[in-house]
Automatic annotation (TrEMBL):
Domain DUF2264 per the UniProt entry, residue ranges: 25-159
Chain coiled-coil ranges: none
Domain of life: Eukaryota
Protein name (record): DUF2264 domain-containing protein
InterPro entries with a match to the protein in the record: DUF2264_N, UCP014753
Length: 160
């Protein structure tokens, strides 16, 4: 059944939005990716650095890391969409989120990962996005690029 407030299909009583997209070509896969990303819109934080989905997460890490996962895990799809020549109306949400989340002066800063920290896992889709979707990097100022470099390169190789 679709939740009227969020537009999400909750449980198994209704048709999942993915089932409404018949995969036949690149365009249909791009539509599927948009179908994945669109429902996240109401759950972005004010500075767009975090996504907090409703309900319990059942994660074993802190809430902030869960919300960082909320923005960076779906970026796999956004990156593929952009790299494949597609467009997405919400791309700016992720760009703003990256700017805010990697800025240590921002209230929504993601924080540096500690040993065994979920943030290290989320660096992978973030790095992939920077590699295949140049529009993300090109949208950042020099200071914002330094912030990204500092967040991704903060002695990660020395972590457990």
């Amino acid at each position: 059944m679709e939740d009227p407030k969020t537009g999400l299909v909750l449980g198994y009583n209704g048709a999942h939005p993915f089932s409404k997209v018949h995969l036949t070509d690149r365009s249909s896969v791009q539509e599927l990716l948009r179908t994945l990303l669109d429902p996240l819109e109401p759950f972005f934080s004010p500075q767009k650095a975090r996504v907090k989905v409703p309900g319990a997460t059942a994660v074993r890490f802190d809430q902030a890391a869960s919300e960082v996962e909320g923005i960076l895990r779906p970026i796999w799809g956004l990156a593929a969409l952009l790299a494949g020549g597609g467009e997405y109306r919400g791309t700016e949400w992720w760009i703003q989120g990256i700017k805010s989340g990697t800025d240590p002066e921002n209230l929504e800063y993601w924080g540096f990962p500690r040993d065994n920290d979920q943030r290290m896992v989320e660096m992978c889709p973030f790095g992939f996005t920077l590699a295949v979707a140049p529009t993300i990097w090109e949208s950042l100022s020099e200071t914002e690029r330094v912030n990204v470099e500092n967040w991704l390169g903060n002695s990660i190789n020395e972590k457990k």
